[in-house]
């Protein structure tokens, strides 16, 4: 029995005009994501991975090709699609609980239900004791937890995460990666995360989408068939990580991916790029 795609990106090309010149950020990108899947997207800076995320979330337009969520064409933002950015973007004059409640601003829920949902998501991200705190009283990791809670509070079908841990120190980053994996396992929300960190991509993803340099295309989709929770020091983890790094540098096999047929096209290797992560 075939699995119905939850989110489909089909033959998407996105171009921008910069100083009267046309820049192609994405070229003929196709990807299918199933419900409840955790997909990570990795690539060098400027490869179009964040552009792809914004298109999927409905925050950008003007592209060629088609993006569908639950069979419906994505034409703009929706409460069904949440997004978390690298910066928490909390309002400094609002408490943590009121910042999280902003995720329910247009959800049409009662005051009592809003209070219950905010309390539940404060617990989910481990910020119960900081409901009345202001952003300046939080560490970077705590602020990012609040941003994740705001993205989750209205129970979106898909949560897009744009390098949410990129500005954090290594220890905090590793801790929050583990927490995000636990949240995903519990909530069963489809997640799509953009990162430049290969370890993060392999640790979190069911599949790792490897992007080529501009114009951004999908070079390879690497399945991560490792049990969870994952052990970063295991040889199996190291093998997958090495494969992704090789693909980023254009040296891995670019034969048809084992993912959904037709999801991506082989791309000829390019000159080596600096390893990311």
Automatic annotation (TrEMBL):
Source domain of life: Bacteria
Instruction: Read off the SUPFAM superfamilies from this record.
Output: P-loop containing nucleoside triphosphate hydrolases (SSF52540)
Keyword match Transport: yes
Key words, A-Z:
ATP-binding, Nucleotide-binding, Transport
The entry lists its GO molecular-function terms as: ATP binding
InterPro entries membership: AAA+_ATPase, ABC_transporter-like_ATP-bd, ABC_transporter-like_CS, ABC_transporter_ATP-bind, P-loop_NTPase
The family database entries (Pfam families) matched by this protein are listed as:
ABC_tran (PF00005)
Query: Does the keyword section mention Membrane?
Result: no
Q: Using the record's annotation, list all stretches that form the ABC transporter domain.
A: 7-238
**Per the similarity annotation, which family is this?**
Belongs to the ABC transporter superfamily.
Annotated protein name in UniProt: ABC transporter ATP-binding protein
């Amino acid at each position: 029995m075939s699995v119905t795609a939850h989110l489909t990106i089909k033959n998407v090309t996105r171009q921008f005009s910069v100083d009267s010149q046309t820049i192609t950020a994405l070229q003929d990108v196709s990807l299918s994501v199933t419900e409840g899947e955790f997909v990570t997207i990795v690539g060098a800076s400027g490869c179009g991975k964040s552009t792809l995320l914004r298109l999927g979330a409905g925050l950008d337009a003007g592209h060629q090709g088609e993006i569908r969520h639950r069979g419906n064409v994505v034409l703009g933002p929706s409460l069904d699609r949440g997004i978390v950015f690298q910066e928490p973007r909390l309002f400094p004059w609002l408490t943590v609980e009121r910042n999280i409640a902003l995720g329910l601003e247009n959800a049409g829920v009662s005051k009592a239900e809003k209070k219950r949902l905010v309390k539940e998501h404060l617990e989910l991200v481990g910020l119960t004791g900081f409901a009345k705190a202001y952003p300046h009283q939080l560490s970077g990791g705590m602020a990012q937890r609040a941003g994740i809670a705001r993205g989750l509070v209205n129970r979106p079908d898909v949560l897009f995460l744009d390098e949410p841990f990129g500005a954090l120190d290594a220890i905090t980053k590793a801790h929050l990666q583990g927490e995000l994996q636990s949240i995903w396992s519990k909530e069963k929300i489809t997640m799509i995360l953009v990162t430049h960190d290969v370890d993060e991509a392999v640790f979190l993803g069911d599949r790792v989408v490897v992007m080529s340099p501009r114009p951004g295309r999908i070079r390879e989709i690497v399945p991560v068939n490792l049990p969870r929770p994952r052990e970063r020091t295991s040889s199996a983890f190291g093998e997958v990580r090495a494969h992704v790094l090789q693909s980023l540098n254009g040296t891995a096999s670019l034969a048809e991916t084992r993912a959904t047929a037709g999801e991506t096209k082989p791309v000829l290797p390019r000159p080596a790029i600096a390893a990311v992560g």
